[in-house]
Amino acid sequence: MGKLILYLVIGIIIGIIIGFFLCRFVVKKQMDKNPPINEKMIEAMMSSMGRKPSQKQVKQVMNQMNRYK
Length: 69
What we know:
This protein is an all-alpha fold. The protein has 2 domains: 1-34; 36-69. Helix content is 80%, strand content 0%. The protein contains 3 helices and no strands. It is rod-shaped and about 70 Å long. The mean pLDDT is 89.
């Protein structure tokens, strides 16, 4: 009975570790494939607010967004 509980606990711990790394890998792959925001989206957002953004402003906003990833 004691061995069964030990194997069960070890199996759960190994499953949690494998699940964590698998989930992390999938999320990173999805974020690289479909980034949440890109330069064109920032340009469109600034243009909708009535101003024409320069490339420097767009880069600054992208750097700020990437800093908080």
